[in-house]
């Protein structure tokens, strides 16, 4: 990755906005010559889905090869104005107008960064929205809300909240994990016809919540591979161990248990993976397509409490309704933090850390997160 013939220049950007944790207002990325990294493949787990969505996936530029020229500072444009049909200063549930104004400014600046990045890197994509683009968007009809699911970013608790908003449950805390994800309470937008899809995209409030990309990856690994999970150990664990472990035991090959973090990263970065990608570690911009769909709010997991409350008041939800904060899977595990992420990535080489960052680089740019480690370009 290093090339001593070139002088690297750090570009800095100072932002006048107040930032919440997780809002890494774009800092300059060092420009450097880099050895080409093979484009990552993203085969779907289910072959039928892969065959059905090949065309729409090709319409998106996917994960572009990041060049030296692209690794430069983006100077954001002036903030966009608020939507006319939402009076931010009149939202209930906020005691101080100053606090509301600050949060509003951050959310609008976040959207503007997204717009700029889309204009810069994805201006050539097809503007046609297909059912495949909206397959992770959940519909709540009563309050006219669309929520794009990003696993490991509070999605279980958001689904609980949407179920309560729909009137199908009275208390989000009463819904267990199986009910939330497999109870059939919510419909995804791709189950509607094209006219109905476009009507909802044009008239409903749309939102998504994101998380620091490598924190999210570590959270997914801990959840799926460090705890009992027959589905993931069978589908992913077995082929990962078979390909990346030297002299695996017969027991490991049979059960798929015990995938190490280094093995998981090797799988993630492999251009010829033995098994496809999964929604829990797929790039967030590929799940929600924010360059095609104009989200009214892009929230951050790192400031979930305040930003979820802002959204609920914006859509007119009852003042008493709050987003739950509990963990329903592996509740005894400590939540993945920056320190835990650093601990896990210390188990892999500098090159693997760099390639992991490059793999999620578009998420870092689009959702305005700071570079996770100081030794990266």
TrEMBL record:
<feature type="region of interest" description="Disordered">
    <location>
        <begin position="38"/>
        <end position="65"/>
    </location>
</feature>
<comment type="similarity">
    <text>Belongs to the sulfotransferase 2 family.</text>
</comment>
<keyword id="KW-0808">Transferase</keyword>
<dbReference type="GO" id="GO:0000139">
    <property type="term" value="C:Golgi membrane"/>
</dbReference>
<dbReference type="InterPro" id="IPR005331">
    <property type="entry name" value="Sulfotransferase"/>
</dbReference>
<dbReference type="GO" id="GO:0016051">
    <property type="term" value="P:carbohydrate biosynthetic process"/>
</dbReference>
<keyword id="KW-1133">Transmembrane helix</keyword>
<dbReference type="Pfam" id="PF03567">
    <property type="entry name" value="Sulfotransfer_2"/>
</dbReference>
<keyword id="KW-0472">Membrane</keyword>
<dbReference type="InterPro" id="IPR018011">
    <property type="entry name" value="Carb_sulfotrans_8-10"/>
</dbReference>
<dbReference type="GO" id="GO:0008146">
    <property type="term" value="F:sulfotransferase activity"/>
</dbReference>
<feature type="compositionally biased region" description="Polar residues">
    <location>
        <begin position="51"/>
        <end position="65"/>
    </location>
</feature>
<dbReference type="GO" id="GO:0030166">
    <property type="term" value="P:proteoglycan biosynthetic process"/>
</dbReference>
<keyword id="KW-0333">Golgi apparatus</keyword>
<keyword id="KW-0812">Transmembrane</keyword>
<keyword id="KW-0119">Carbohydrate metabolism</keyword>
<keyword id="KW-0325">Glycoprotein</keyword>
<keyword id="KW-0735">Signal-anchor</keyword>
<protein>
    <recommendedName>
        <fullName>Carbohydrate sulfotransferase</fullName>
        <ecNumber>2.8.2.-</ecNumber>
    </recommendedName>
</protein>
């Amino acid at each position: 990755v290093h090339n001593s013939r070139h002088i690297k220049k750090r570009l800095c950007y100072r932002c006048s906005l107040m930032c919440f944790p997780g809002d890494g207002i774009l800092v300059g990325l060092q420009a450097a010559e880099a050895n080409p990294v093979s484009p990552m493949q993203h085969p779907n787990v289910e072959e039928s889905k892969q065959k059905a969505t090949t065309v729409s996936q090709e319409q998106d530029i996917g994960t572009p090869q990041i060049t030296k020229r692209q690794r430069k500072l983006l100077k954001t444009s002036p903030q966009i104005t608020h939507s006319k049909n939402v009076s931010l200063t009149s939202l209930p549930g906020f005691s101080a107008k100053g606090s509301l104004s600050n949060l509003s400014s951050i959310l609008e600046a976040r959207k503007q960064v997204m717009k700029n990045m889309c204009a810069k890197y994805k201006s050539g994509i097809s503007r046609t929205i297909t059912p495949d683009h909206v397959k992770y968007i959940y519909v709540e009809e009563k309050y006219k809300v669309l929520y794009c699911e990003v696993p490991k970013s509070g999605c279980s608790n958001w689904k609980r909240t949407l179920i309560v908003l729909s009137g199908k449950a009275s208390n989000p805390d009463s819904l267990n994990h199986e009910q939330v994800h497999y109870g059939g309470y919510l419909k995804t937008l791709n189950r509607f016809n094209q006219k109905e899809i476009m009507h909802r995209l044009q008239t409903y409030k749309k939102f998504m919540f994101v998380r620091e990309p490598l924190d999210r990856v570590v959270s997914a690994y801990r959840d799926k591979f460090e705890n009992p999970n027959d589905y993931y150990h069978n589908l992913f664990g077995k082929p990962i161990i078979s390909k990346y472990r030297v002299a695996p035991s017969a027991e490991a090959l049979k059960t798929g248990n015990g995938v190490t973090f280094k093995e998981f990263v090797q799988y993630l970065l492999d251009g010829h993976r033995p098994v496809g990608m999964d929604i829990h570690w797929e790039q967030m911009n590929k799940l929600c397509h924010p360059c095609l769909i104009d989200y009214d709010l892009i929230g951050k997991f790192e400031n979930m409490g305040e930003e979820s409350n802002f959204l609920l008041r914006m859509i007119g939800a009852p003042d008493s309704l709050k987003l739950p904060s509990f963990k329903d899977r592996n509740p005894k595990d400590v939540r993945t933090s920056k320190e835990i992420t650093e601990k896990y990535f210390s188990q892999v080489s500098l090159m693997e850390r760099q390639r992991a960052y490059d793999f999620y680089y578009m998420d870092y740019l689009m959702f305005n997160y700071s570079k996770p480690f100081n030794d990266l370009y």
